[in-house]
Amino acid sequence: MNRKNILISLVAFLIGCSSALDFTELPIGGNFEVLDKSGNSVSLKTFEEPVLLVFFGYTYCPDFCPNTLAKIKAAVEPLSEVEKTKFKVVFISIDPVRDSPETTTKYVQFYLPQSVGLSFSFDTTNKILKQYAAYVEKTEDGQSFDHSTYIYVLDKNRKTRKLIKSTDSKDVITKSIQVLSGNSI
């Protein structure tokens, strides 16, 4: 094999490695069974979709929340109609004072009809944040929050299989839904 072919093979191998998605089960996140602010029981296992995209935010968020939801919306556009039924976005409010379950659902469904917004008491929200190792801190103005912007990808057993960073491409979201909804791992 000549140098050119070796170089082409090496580049192809490296591109293949970097685009591979790792779906090893992570020790954070997962299912929870709690009551929302309206007194309704909520368990992630009750959702029929094999893939859940869990995201923490709030309806007054000026930047990260709308940008992330817009990225998810763009990521699901190329999916087939059948693939679009295989996932649900679960938006969990980190602002239980201002966000009701209805307001949070309305907010997230503006971006993605196949989504649900959840709002819990302060104590329940904190328990879930700890379970997911999510960062949230109220800013000095008392009106906004600094918060982590990961999308937690959960499989049909509600195990966390991937953390998608806000800097990841929309293709990572698309491929995560496709792979996990196909039960190929």
Automatic annotation (TrEMBL):
Gene3D superfamilies assigned: Glutaredoxin (3.40.30.10)
Cysteines engaged in disulfide bonds, as pairs: 61-65
The keyword Metal-binding appears for this protein: yes
Family assignment from sequence similarity: Belongs to the SCO1/2 family.
Chain ranges passing through the membrane: none
Species: Leptospira terpstrae serovar Hualin str. LT 11-33 = ATCC 700639
Signal peptide: 1-20
Domain Thioredoxin: 14-182
Keywords for this protein: Copper, Disulfide bond, Metal-binding, Signal
Gene Ontology molecular function: any one: metal ion binding
Record-listed Cu cation binding positions: 61, 65, 147
CDD domains linked to this entry: SCO
Pfam families (UniProt xref): SCO1-SenC
Protein's UniProt name: SCO1/SenC
